[in-house]
Amino acid sequence: MWAIFLIKYIALAASLALLLSTAGRVGFHKYRYLLAILFLMPIYFNRDVFFRSLHDDWLNLFLACLMIHTFAIQGTDGISTINTLRLCILAVVLPFTNPALALAFAVAEGGVTLSHSLSGASLQRRWLSCFAVFGFLAASTLLWTYRNYQVFGRVIPIKSNFWFDFYQANSMDDDGLITNETFARYHPINKNDIQAKYLIEGETRFTEEYRRLSFEWIRAHPIQLLMNIGRRAASAFVHSHYVEDILPVNPDKVSLQNIERLRRDQLIFVDDSSVAFWISLSIPQSEFEDRIRDLDLSGEASILQDWSEQREHLNRRRRSWRIILKSLSLSLVPSLCILVGLILEGIRKTPLFSAAVTIYLTYLAPYILTSHYRRYQVPLIGMQSILLFLILCFILERFPFSKIPVLDRLLPGPRQ
Question: How many structural domains are present in the chain?
């Protein structure tokens, strides 16, 4: 276990090193410590994802930082054998790690190739490099496609559980914004009815059924789908919705016998460590009281007290400054940076800005259309840091700091 966390920490440090090197590539080496702060702050705010979880978000973050660093090198040094090799390695690895990152990489590489071609810069060499990169990307994608065809008997590029994720977010969830409660109730990685169904049916029958159910749901609820997409877009670009909506049950107030009855009624979730969590904090209190009354539980008053206390605690956490700041830093702040960058010509024409925006928007698009929550957005922290960094550097290079002696001593380098 310790080795896994050690690798994660090394990857996070390498991600920061790649971003600092990127800052030097675009002429802002003197502000590199500012970029370090912009990167480490959202890492701290999302430390539960990076330091307490075994998910692969750290790997996706590293690959996203490596991607933008590689495109930055290409923008400053042009086409080279070494950088083409880096691009080919990314083309092989990305389809196996994150399909959305692979898509963003393909769009960004195509955009860079087109921009170089229109400018007439090293046309033949540029297209040769592009063909090599897309050749490796196609080969890597086809490996997964072949595997899926062998298992399911149909062409499925990379992500075989796509339609379950879609159905979970749009039909099982009530507003299209998945949370920890959604995963606890419905995702087969957890102990629930869906997991039992998956183990009985197997992967092939399971995924085929949710593919059919998804198409039926789309035909029956097209307006609901559009509303869900709109809410996910707002979560991605304006205010990231709160995800951590399950809280632990107090074992001093709820007995093991009552926990089991509440679990069967899907009011409580018990994880693999036998820790019980409330997964019913989002329902109205009147509904909760009716449901526990029907279960004929002992100590009903203490159960209601614990549920009410945890519900109030959840509401306080949602309104806390730290949660609000974390939400805005992941959504609204990078959105404003993109808008400001598009307005300011000095930033808009920067190849690094174009690559970062392309990767950022392309990566988010599939999640907005299907299923989105905070953990899917944190791999973009490096990209978000670059966007804000470019805006701040643009300001620092033009603001007359010589008129403010304190700031002039703190900020390095001559400014115009």
Answer: 3
